[in-house]
């Protein structure tokens, strides 16, 4: 198990850098994680992050983009604006969750 | 053993602009042959890959407003359906197989074809219709799904997708 220190927070991560223990995450850490990948968190980002955290707590797996748009009510287009290029993975990273496993 | 790095471990999400491009040619109008192209296009877009879909021949049924929501799956001639082949052409078999496949797809939270195309467009994907298929079927842009960007020739598509990886389905 590797630990890494991001902006003063020491957390466990996998070989790619995703957090392995969702309980080590808090909103302060999210700001630091987002900064690492060049994202400044706005209210819109927080809406997506909070949905992902709540959905993970309820479902035990990270929501796919499809689920974030249909269940979380955040349009696909907007997710691509908020977390450019790779929204599902970037959002999971900032939320301290594993990458989504679903195909769609 | 625990190791600690000085530089933070951060996932590599690639550079802001990737030149990776994917072209998918959809040539089939069966329900089971519509999904592979849609799923792969959606996955590529989620990875930041510029994606173009070209609908040609039977694949036109995927973007024809009249047929797109009503694609069918038939077990006829499909040994992977694992049914006695003599039974597959019986009346009602295609309807039943289609119903079952649609149900399993919906249970996974995967959308039907029209909604899936919309998701692909919302993710930045491009939809193109084949000129020859449109002419053969006497169809115009009005007959096609609104998000189709245009009816173009095969050479136009090849030109647009210069340097792309290509899938023919």
Automatic annotation (TrEMBL), chain A:
One GO CC annotation: cytoplasm
**Active-site annotation:** 103 (cysteine persulfide intermediate)
Major subcellular location class:
cytoplasm
Q: What GO biological process terms does the UniProt entry carry, in alphabetical order?
A: tRNA wobble position uridine thiolation
Q: Which Pfam families match?
A: DsrC
Q: Where in the cell is it found?
A: Cytoplasm
**Family membership:** Belongs to the DsrC/TusE family.
Cite the PANTHER family for this sequence: SULFURTRANSFERASE TUSE
Return the protein name.
Answer: TusE/DsrC/DsvC family sulfur relay protein
Which species is listed as the source? Answer: Nocardioides pocheonensis
From TrEMBL, chain B:
InterPro entries for the chain = DsrE2-like, DsrEFH-like
Name by which UniProt lists this protein: Peroxiredoxin family protein
Task: Show the Pfam families listed in the entry.
Answer: DrsE_2
Among Gene3D superfamilies, the record links this protein to: DsrEFH-like (3.40.1260.10)
């Amino acid at each position: 198990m590797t630990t890494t220190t991001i902006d003063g927070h020491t957390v466990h991560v996998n070989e790619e850098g995703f957090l392995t223990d969702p309980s080590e995450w808090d909103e302060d850490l999210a700001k630091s994680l987002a900064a690492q990948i060049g994202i400044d968190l706005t209210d819109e980002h927080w809406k997506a992050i909070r949905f992902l955290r709540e959905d993970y707590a309820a479902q035990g797996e990270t929501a796919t983009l499809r689920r974030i748009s249909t269940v979380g009510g955040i349009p696909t287009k907007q997710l691509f604006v908020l977390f450019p290029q790779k929204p599902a993975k970037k959002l999971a990273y900032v939320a301290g969750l594993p990458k989504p496993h679903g195909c769609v | 053993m625990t190791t600690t790095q000085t530089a933070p471990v951060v996932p590599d999400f690639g550079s802001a602009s990737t030149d990776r491009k994917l072209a998918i040619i959809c040539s089939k109008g069966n329900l089971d042959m519509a999904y592979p192209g849609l799923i792969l296009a959606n996955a590529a877009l989620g990875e930041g890959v510029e994606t173009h879909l070209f609908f040609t021949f039977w694949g036109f049924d995927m973007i024809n407003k009249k047929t797109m929501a009503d694609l069918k799956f038939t077990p006829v001639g499909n040994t992977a359906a694992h049914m006695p082949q003599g039974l597959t052409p019986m009346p009602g078999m295609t309807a039943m197989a289609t119903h079952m496949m649609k149900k399993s797809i919906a249970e996974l939270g995967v959308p039907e074809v029209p909604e899936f195309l919309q998701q692909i467009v919302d993710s930045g994907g491009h939809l193109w219709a084949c000129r020859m298929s449109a002419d053969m079927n006497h169809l115009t842009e009005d007959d096609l799904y609104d998000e189709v960007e245009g009816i173009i020739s095969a050479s136009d598509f090849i030109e647009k997708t210069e340097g792309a990886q290509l899938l023919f389905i």
